[in-house]
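Sync notes, pocket subgroup
Present: LS, DG
LS reminded everyone that the earlier model was apo-only. Rerun requested with FE2/S2 (inorganic) cluster included. Inputs:
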Amino acid sequence: MDDLRVGDEDPRGLTRGAPVDVTFDGEPVVAFEGESVAAALLAADVRATRTTRRGGRPRGLFCGIGACHDCLVRVDGSGPVRACLTPVRDGMAVTSHVLGAGGPA
Ligand code: FES
C-alpha cells in the first residue's frame, strides 16, 4: 500500500517526511514524519484497531477527522487516543485498544 503515500518525486511537489520507527501490537510499521497513526496503519493494511463493546466486532479508521472514535488505539501504554488525530513519532509503540483496559470504548 505504499502507493497511497507521497512518493519521492511527487509531481505536485509534496514531500515525504523522514522515516520513523513505529510498532503496532509489537510489529514494525513503516511510517513517516507528518503522518497520523491512522494513515501509517492504513498504509500497512491494518484495518482494525479496536473491537466493539458488544459483540467484539472490529473497528478502525472511519471518519478520519476525530468525530467517530472508531480508530482508538493506545500509545506507549496511554489511555485510548484517536489514531486519526495522533501524529507518529520515532519510537512510538501503538497497541490495539482493548476493552476493559480503561477509558471509553
Ligand atoms: S476515524 Fe473517526 S475518530 Fe478517528
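DG: The radius of gyration is 14 Å.
LS: The chain has a mean pLDDT of 89.
Action: DG to write up.
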